[in-house]
Amino acid sequence: MAMESTYGTLLGLRGALHFDRITSAALAGNPLGDPAERAVIVYTPPGYDPKGSRAYPVLYVLHGYSGDALALVSARPWEHNVVQWADRLVHERRMPPVILVIVDGFTRLGGSQYIDSIHNGNYATYTVRDVVGHVDASYRTIAREGGRAVRGKSSGGFGSMHLVMEHPGVFAAFASHSGDAYFNYAAPPAFPSVQRTLEKHDFSIATFVEVFEKKFKRTQPEFQTMEILGYTAAYSPRSAKAFDLDLPFDLHTGALRDDVFARWLAFDPVERVAGAQPALQRLRLRYLDCGRRDEYGLDIGARLVAERIRELGLEVRHEEFDDDHRNVGYRYEISLPALAEVLDRNDH
User: Fold this and answer.
1) For all residues of the chain together, what is the average pLDDT?
2) 250: number of Cβ within 10 Å
3) Are 217 and 175 in a shared domain?
4) Residue 208 above 80 pLDDT?
5) Does residue 335 share a domain with residue 245?
6) Under DSSP, is residue 339 helix (H, G, I), strand (E, B) or coil?
7) Are residues 84 and 230 in the same domain?
8) Parent domain of 272
9) What is the count of structural domains for the chain?
């Protein structure tokens, strides 16, 4: 029995799970040495016939920081992963059948934010050109804007917002679950801890990363440091040389560097919405949610993004939950059908 069907059976899926690999020119030769060959995990619903005439809409799924494609199909007791949610909702006829595609955006620093970066590689291009191109060529998809949506959680939610604004015409809808936004609140609280941690490693990013990678257990300040380095590699790289980064604070004193943080803010969805009306206007659904007790203050970010979108005269669906940043998969019961319902269908 194929590995795909074996694992799909273990997950209790009625549809099928396919583990593909693609080689992306957009990621080739990146300074961090991350592989250009990546996993693309594709879920096809019950009744899918690769030789049939029926085509399906596609939901692209982006993982959060420190995750990868395999993490999104992992099984946990008492919980559903995103594939299990989609399979259940299709089976119960609470959403139309869709193809689900899980994109791998992991880097040596823990994540790419799905941004084209001279330091990480071109992860936006990899997603919208290479992954979408592979899926449209290999599966029975509705291969146009109206047949695609993108969604994700945390950094994946940020990535979903970034891609629809940066590459209009690829996706017809997005959903952001606790997506990174309003960087003024979300990022600076970690800066003092990151500066102190790098000081312990003689202010060398390369030394810190090498030590971090060799550990079997990392402390919270160490994880925080890697996370901020990951964001820096996406938002403010200095050059196409490994670990050559412009941190948003002075490495030795810890003082904020407003000029560098301004480069971060240029990617902040709260700041970008005002100039992205044409891209946002063409979308059929703009969906944001967050927990009211989010540890990073991302509930404020989601609220402000929704407000900015409404100021453009556009509709947005904004949900808030009595919850924090963790274990938010139950919200997919809302967002997955909402996305699927607005996409084109081909039931023949």
Assistant:
1) 96
2) 12
3) no
4) yes
5) no
6) helix
7) no
8) 3-181+268-342
9) 2
267 close to 305: Cβ distance less than 8 angstroms: no
Is residue 347 very low, low, confident or very high in pLDDT (cuts 50, 70, 90)?
A: low
Tokens representing 111?
A: 């994540």
Residue 347 lies in a domain: no
Element (H, E) at 124: helix 123-125
Span 127-145, average pLDDT: 98
The average pLDDT across 311-331 equals: 96
Q: Is the dihedral angle over the CA atoms 25, 39, 211, 159 positive or is it negative?
A: positive
Q: What is the DSSP letter of 3?
A: H
Can you state the angle between helices 205-214 and 191-199, rounded to 10 degrees?
90
Nearest one of 175, 166, 165 to 61, comparing CA atoms? 175
By DSSP bridging, strand 16-23 and strand 58-62 are unpaired
Among residues 236, 265, 294, the one where a domain terminates is 265
Q: Reduced to 3 states, what is the DSSP secondary structure of residue 187?
A: coil
Is the distance from CB of 60 to CB of 103 less than 8 angstroms? Answer: yes
Q: In this structure, are strands 285-291 and 37-44 parallel, antiparallel, or unpaired?
A: unpaired
Q: How confident is the model at residue 1 (pLDDT cuts 50, 70, 90)?
A: very low
How many whole angstroms separate alpha carbon 57 and alpha carbon 35?
29
Residue 296: inside a domain, yes or no? yes
The answer to whether the CB of 235 falls within 8 A of the CB of 109 is no
| pTM (predicted TM-score) | 0.97
Concatenating the DSSP letter of every residue in 131-163 gives IHHHHHHHS-B--SGGGEEEEEETHHHHHHHHH
Structure-block tokens of residue 228: 């901020």
Identify which of 76, 104, 72, 67 has the alpha carbon closest to the alpha carbon of residue 86.
72
Tell me if 173 sits within 8 A of 339, measured CB to CB.
yes
Distance set, CA 304 to CA 162, 231, 267, 299 (Å)? 16, 21, 15, 9
In a domain, 334, yes or no: yes
CB 50 within 8 A of CB 139: yes
Query: What pLDDT, in 10s, does the model give residues 238-265?
Result: 999 999 999 999 999 999 999 999 999 9
CATH code for position 290: 3.40.50.1820
